[in-house]
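Thread title: Can someone regenerate the structure for this chain?

I was given the following input by a collaborator and told the matching structure tokens would be attached. They weren't. Posting the sequence so someone can regenerate them.
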Amino acid sequence: MYQQMIFVNLPVTDLDASKKFFTDLGYTINPQFSDENAASVVISDTIVAMLLTHSFYATFTDKEIADAKKSSEVLVALSAPSREKVDELVDRALAAGGMVSGRTQDLGFMYGRAFDDLDGHTWEIVWMDPAAVQG
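Best answer:
Regenerated them for you:
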């Protein structure tokens, strides 16, 4: 059965530092799709973050590359299997040099926290009670 994938392409200013940041979070780099211009960060079987140097990213767009530290260009939301895993991943991101983004959201049935990576891209990590999803 076909599984649709998502490839989130993000411009980064320091590819090596960004690779270290994401491996510090527990993700792996797929060397088959990585080189001096890009790093393929495997988040899951169907989610990949492509970290691209600014010069390489610019080959895919005619638009100006946003400075994510000054403006919001995307919010990447990832699910987590538990509240504890939300905290674990965000705490790892902060220890690796990320910054807190926004406020903790605790609605009882849903819990989330967010961080900005080294380039200011916002990552939201969210847990939702499966019983609440089923309605």
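Helices lie at 15-24, 54-57, 83-95, 130-134.
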